[in-house]
Amino acid sequence: MMVSSKVRARTPKNSRGAGYSLLESLIALFVFATAILYLAAGADFALRSGTRSNQESRAALLARSKLSQLRSWLQQSSPNHFANFSSYPNQGSWQPDQFGCETRVDLAAQQTYTPSYPSEVFLPAAERRALDQSLLRARVQVRWGTQPYQQFSLVSLVSDSRRAWRAVIWP
Questions:
Q1: Residue 76: which of 63, 89, 93, 62 has the closest Cα?
Q2: SS (H, E, C) 23-49
Q3: 1, 4, 53, 102: which has the fewest C-beta neighbours closer than 10 Å?
Q4: Predicted structure pTM score
Q5: pLDDT digits 0-9 by tens, 30-72
Q6: Phi and psi (nearest 5°) for 118?
Q7: 3-state secondary structure of 35
């Protein structure tokens, strides 16, 4: 018997090799890198959205606080600030705030009409019976940047609490 000194490793007949080809590895690396980039972009979007939501919440709180200050200023009995609302300090100008925002308060008289008869609602404003200057339209704006979406606006009607309201009943 003849013994061969060379020993061969046994491999399956239809196998190309034990590992992945270079092309398969490159495709897998590309897919993995693309997935990592999309995850990073999603995390960045979530962080920016959270920051913007936080800024909008602060702006809403600040606007409500300014409106509350305005209401208490208007209701002071001496002097009658409601009658002379144009004397509100810094009205119509942007003022820096302690939170890194800027605030602006605008006041205007709000004309109201009495709808004594149901059909009076449909008349033009010039033909309706107007009430006296009993309401003010207050607009409080808060901005925290230069972009249009970095601004919050709160609009409210403020009435004179000293006014004696009475119902008029028509026969």
A1: 89
A2: HHHHHHHHHHHHHHHHHHHHHHHHHHH
A3: 1
A4: 0.64
A5: 999 999 999 999 999 999 899 889 888 999 999 999 999 998 8
A6: -55, -30
A7: helix
